[in-house]
User: Fold these one by one.
Assistant:
Number 1:
Amino acid sequence: MGDRRAFAPPFAANPRINLGPRFWVGRERSAAAALLIALASLWSFWPTLGQLVRAWFHDSQYSHGILVPLFSFGLLWSRRDRFPAGARPAPVSGFALLAFAAAVRVFGGAIYFAWLDQIALLPFLAGLVLVFGGWPVLRWAAAPLLFLAYMVPLPYRFEVLLGFPLQRLATDASTYVLQTLGQPAIAEGTAILIRDFKLSIVKACSGLSMLVTFFTFSTAVCLVVKKPVSDKLLILLSAIPIALVTNILRIVLTGLMHLHVSSESANAFFHDAAGWFMMPLALVFLWAELWVLRRLFVDARARPALR
């Protein structure tokens, strides 16, 4: 009988990827083609990447964007031992997806919609994965690729659509909390009148920034924790009320500081210190939620039959 090991598929004996010199033996042409396509893709998307980087460094609402590709790469690396063995390229489907991404970019440029040009990076990367790795590799890399959507700023119209309702919600809820605490607060549009002081809830204070950032973080937590799908869905959905409550507490504390400390301290807290404590506070809320849920719902375990 022949040696069965000769017919074993790649990575079957050891599923962990070895990126050493032996890995590239017999794959020189594929590696050269992948390198050329990577350089061409980088050249093609260079203006788009420049827009994203400027948004990350100049818009505090999307300052988390620089961490998104790093997290996606780390998530892929952590899954390297689950890389599908014997993956077969799917060039037809891959080039079709690349053509779709190119069409999205052209359409976005024609109507001056920068978001389409930026989001087209996702189907483009997925198409490259199909061309070189096929559907098994795309399923393996699907979650990290989809997570890259969080590095793309929201469309301006969508920000405007969400911004004003969130401003009104933050204003009304904060005023209600202040009144419940016995403080002289009155809501007037998107401002809170506290005695002779007017606390304006501008667009930057609507809570949209916290909502986007914490939703991104919650999604990252769902991708790394080993919990049932129901728990992960709860973590993801709870990001919305936690982010909103955290922003409301920020406004309430600012109003209390105006009343009982000083306007200078309140302004410093509202614009500087509050930005640092909001995320840790949101994480505390998330931890408390999971702590309560672990005690409310008990896993049903099989018990031995009584004899």
Number 2:
Amino acid sequence: MPVYHTALGDVEMLEWGDGPELLVMLHAAAAGPQSLTALAALLARPGLRIVAPALNRYGATVMRDEADRVRAHVDVLRATLELHPPEKRMLFGHSMGGLVGLLGAVEAMRFDTMVLYEPIVVACVDDRELVAWDRAIVATQDIAAFVTAWNGAPWQSLPENVRKRLTTMAPVLIADMRSVSHYPLDLARLSEARMPITLLQGERSPPITHAMTTRLATLLPDARRAVVAGLGHMGPVQAAESVAPYLI
């Protein structure tokens, strides 16, 4: 993957196609941009440039300011947009990538539309038991426990090469788990995200994700929520064909 050197830092990026329209795809924690390859292939068409940057500390992406992990991921998005000044901008964000996309929206990064698959915004969840469930997983600092809880599949069911990669990335993933779970988003600022936003919800995903997308649908000025039958939290990776129609 090419690496772009920007004022904010180095950004490694997957790219498909070219044209006046731009679709930025932001991956989930523990996933990386390669996880969105199948979805990008389904969305490719003439006139559309698709880019999937690796978020901070994934691959060769390293931001200059890493004091706040979530903010560093937002800087990746900002740097990506500075590289690509298109006529029309769209964004797809998965999980942690969805949170990053929302923060970009409230910080005046211009997009015409967004599709967010279960953006992780714990700050909007009122149910204390659900928040406690998430915080307990984060507190373990156990990648296997995190993946099992959020992916809906036992750790041992993952291919050995995937488990090895995640174990190697453990320090990055644990830091992201903590930062995203505890991110103090000012919910009032969501009213500034005025572009149409589709919130996708996997039918089989953890209950906390249902609480997030339901609440966000009431806080965002122009949002609709759609439940995708049969999918879990990793739906965009495991069943791209079920997610793609919402972006076409």
Number 3:
Amino acid sequence: MVLFQVVVGFLFLISGRRLFWLFVGCLGAVTGMLVMEPFIGNVDWPVIVLVIAMAGVCGAVLAIVFQKGAVGLSGFLAGGYLAVAFPSSLGATVPDGLWVIYLIGGLVGLVVALMFFEWALIVLSSLSGASLIIEAVGLPAFEAMVVLLVLAVAGTILQTRQLMVEI
């Protein structure tokens, strides 16, 4: 699980905008992991892996077939994930109403993604990638915040340079 998070986080950092379908697919898989987490003790691993894989494939297919809808979906999924994962990766306790926080973050991410598609992809994929890596590594709160900011800025700069080369 840790290796998966680091690899996906790294992919988000370096190519979340360029490999949009992969970004949405991985966000689907990460969301599948979040959904399955409370049930891990009660569900067999093959079922967990199947749900995660199905969520990822659904996200990737949506990204390819319905790009505009996938833009909104990726913004929603990234915003929801960040709203839940960002505070916990910094050591804050996430309250019981996790789905409400996810929903609010998702709606904010949706609006941002639709308004500023290219830049939203760069920023959301960089923040999501950095947050995944920080969560997997498990640093103390202050170090986590510093590394998160450094990784997010590095990912944003790298992807912005890639965008400028393409233009």
Number 4:
Amino acid sequence: MISESITALLSERYRWLVTGAAGFIGSNLVEALLMAGQEVVGLDDFSSGHLRNLELVREVVATHIDDFSLVRGDIRDRTACLNAMRGVDFVLHHAAVASVPLSIEQPALVHEINVAGTVCVFEAARACGVRRVVYASSSAVYGDLQALPQMEEEIGRPLSPYGATKRINEIDGDLYSNVFGLETLGLRYFNVFGPRQDPKGAYAAVIPRWIESVVRKEPLTVYGQFGISRDFCFIGDVVRANVTAAVRPGVIGGQVFNIASGRETTLGSLFDAIRDTARKQGIAYDLEPRIEPARAGDIERSVAAVEKARAVLGFVAEKQLEEGLGPTVSYYSRAVGRS
């Protein structure tokens, strides 16, 4: 259970701020922290997050919901950030535009939200005396780097405005730690998946989009070809990585860490794994995928080096792809049944 592993990490009750609380990762963070007996504030403007995610949290946490408060606001709004930050010990910053294709279509908007918004979060945290800010970075910072596995010490040129904004977040995080004394810590997520990830729209991540297609028995699309690879990390491990990074003792501010399984999986293997998992749950799927040209900004191969997170944070991903797909397919099967 996620809540049990989180409780084991916490020696006392803290007050947490989760930005992007109504999103996929944010709502899972809120749920796990509340179940571990923590006090949580959520900040979200619902531009991409969904109220339904927080309603699902409410169903799970039951009486713990009294420990949660929601601030509706934009991370670019200094007043909203300050209001949400009062009395907070730790910030888990996940509010962002997290789409490579959208960043290519609207680079100025994505820069404003991801860069200016994150600086606003850092400034509010500094003003309010927050102990540490853990923020979401991305494997997109590796850009055109060809070396594998991808190690924190070496990055390439960004291939998208989204990747550039995440690299700027890391530079700003290092600056706020070393110049202003605000401890920040960046988590370079690889391909996170699990329940509540949005399968809708042109910018949806591959796993929820494919699972919904399989559950609905509709054709699915592969952008590029089946040999493209990614490093998939289950949401439960990402939640644990956040809490570990926040409460880990020692001065580790300004650093960044890969958060991933350390296992390279091709899209062909992913398709087989999803289809096999669905079959075990009574869902037969025999349609052949449609192959479309690769999208701008997408990289061909991705797999993380995970030694730094293990050595410094004591974090190791516990669930492999196949283990995480079981509850994920079950979630989307139920969601499709409700729709």
